[in-house]
Amino acid sequence: MPHPDISAAGKYRSGAVNRPGKPASWRLMGGIQGMSGYAYGCKYPSLVFSLEGKSLGAAQQRALWSLVENACPGIQQPAELGVAGAGGVQTVGALLSVWQAVQSALGLPVFEPGRVLVSSGTQARCVLPCMESSQRALASLVRRTMWWLAHPAADGAPDEAQTLFLQDVQTLGRFSASGSNVPRFVRAAYETDIPFFVLPGDVYQYGQGSRARWMDSSFTDVTPAISAKLARNKVLASAVLRQSGVPVPSHQLAGDVETALQVAQRLGYPVVVKPADLDGGLGVAAGLCSEEEVRQAFAQARQLSQQILVEKHVEGRDYRLTVFNGEVNWAIERVPAGVTGDGLRTVAQLIDQVNADPRRGTGTHAPLKRLELDQEALALLGRLGLTTDSVPEDGRFVRLCRAANVASGGTPKAVFDRVHPDNAWLAVRAAEALRLDLAGIDMLIPDIAVSWRESGAAICEVNGQPNLGQTTAAHLYAPMLGRLLQGSGRIPVVMVMGAVNSEAWVASLEQHWKAKGLRVGVAMCDQVRVDGETVHQGPLTPYAGGRMLVLSRRVDAMLVVIGDDSVLTTGLPVDRCDFLILAGDHIDALDPKASTHRSLWHAELLRCVFPSCTEAVAFRASAFPASVNDLKRLTPAAWQALSNDDAEAIRQTVQLLEMQVAPFTLVPEGSA
Known about the structure:
It is built from 19 helices and 32 strands.
């Protein structure tokens, strides 16, 4: 089975779909186009391709899902699959939902479903949103699926087909988002209409131009590197906190196990052993009461780090308070991994019951982690005089992990409404001591509702890149993005398409915005300007030029000229355009076939662009012939005809810009 390959232009070629001499019921019609930008109204990069095939029967659908489940255990079956008697186009919709479900199950932050763009009989042209980095792998999976549909086996998929399908899924999974914050921030952006895209290094940009912000998981673009460095080193962080008057436990680094034992003896049992330079509860062992437990904990921590810390254990419940821009915006109690007896079931049975919760899993993106009967759990049971066959009395909590963090099987319990103001202020002081804009403050205290001044407390860790969580904190991501961006993060975007003299149109629009005090970015076919300064000279696509503007913090509003059909290959530089000006039909065709299929080419170009236009479309008759009048339905924008006289049309356009795009005008930076 041939794999797809990618050309310099980004087009995936499908290769042969059928085996020689064996007609197929399904096939790819041509290649799979990878769009780096935005097309057909998608908020993500995408794959665009055409399929042909017959409807799938119930047995075929079951076999297909069996193939998918084998490669993605635990995947949720989409509702579109399994519809009895579904026609060909409906079947295409089901296939798109399967590919979307696979991306979701693998942890790729893609929340937009695929769509059928146009269909005729058994044929359909489709768009499948995806991450740009995963396009090659997803294209391979699409091809593999189509090959499997074209060659159904009498008794299910052959072992070789299952193995190859699994390999494609595993390859796609390598592009999973790192950490659990990324997919939740991306989902929040998608659901609140905040534009986003990925930069090199898996850094995400949310917003555009002067209103954009960067994030690396929960690091922001104003998180000081010095602060992050200090927070990751528990010894240094504690030293700064102690000097700032924040209560912290006593501790000392131990270079070997004998030193660790000496430190534990000096501090007094119980103690905590943990890596000094790791986050997320990795290697943490708390409540150690003997030399043997210290030896074991030291050996386990040493497998993860060479920097081992021995710390005085502080009695109290474990709380995580999230501080953002000087305020506590969420708090949880981290209940350690364990089970609560009912007087009927054994410890092993209670563990099985807890692990039956569908939220518990082993993957990076599982909201909760499964309880494990490892050596630590067995040791804690032994300390209580229990075994896995013991039946704890009703209401008795049996702890199975020394650390209380969620990554070790703990359960978060929301306590935000119970936080005493003194305790909230202590958390803010800890974040401010390290100069962190966003931080997770781990506090040990008997009761979060009682002031630490009365009960005592200790800050055992400050996490500079905290996992905000999903079980209790899924609601935090959207408001945090909104505060970072001060709204949607969008700037006004105008596109001029098909103008003979694009400079005249751009100059008038640019001057209009400059008069309002805005810094204007302009992307033309041979030049990019930012606030009047040329930043690039030479030919480039609308996507490349527009991306320069979206990345620039000096751009308050942007103008993009579309003078060729490259957007059919690259997509647009933005997911949404406020004002589209169809100034004429002067568009260079890079595709040599366009000259012989001019009307089809023109319609496809408009079909690619129109869904992204939301407020207004101004057009001249030459740019929008009656033959494509039905494409107006692709955009909710208001339509306005322009004069055939250039000067008058430009004057009308500036007037429309004032009326249609004024609500999006920004207050220039520093003038508020």
